[in-house]
């Protein structure tokens, strides 16, 4: 029943998306063979990394 093994995740977050956003997400799932959760985790990591870079650049200016 799922991949709860080493790193169990118990928190559930839901969000609303448009039909177009859902289609895009489904295409990503088919292309990458990843789950919605995995895609969203990667998106959060990507956003966090770029947000931090932008903040550091802004502070240096």
Explain how this protein is built:
The protein has helices at residues 19-32, 36-60. Helix content is 64%, strand content 0%. By secondary structure, it is mainly α. The radius of gyration is 15 Å and the shape is extended.
* Rg computed from alpha carbons, rounded to a whole number of angstroms: 15 Å
Question: Quaternary state, please?
Answer: single chain
Distance separating the two termini: 50 Å
What would the principal axes of the Cα set say about the shape? Answer: extended
SSE topology sketch:
Elements (H helix, E strand, L loop, with lengths): L18 H14 L3 H25 L1
Offer a quick outline of the entry.
The chain has a domain of 26 residues. 64% of the residues lie in helices and 0% in strands.
Features:
single chain, 61 residues, mainly alpha, extended
């Amino acid at each position: 029943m799922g991949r709860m093994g080493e790193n169990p995740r118990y928190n559930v977050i839901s969000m609303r998306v448009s039909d177009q956003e859902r289609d895009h997400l489904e295409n990503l799932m088919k292309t990458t063979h990843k789950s919605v959760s995995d895609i969203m985790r990667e998106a959060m990591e990507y956003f966090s990394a770029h947000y931090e870079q932008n903040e550091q650049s802004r502070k240096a200016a």
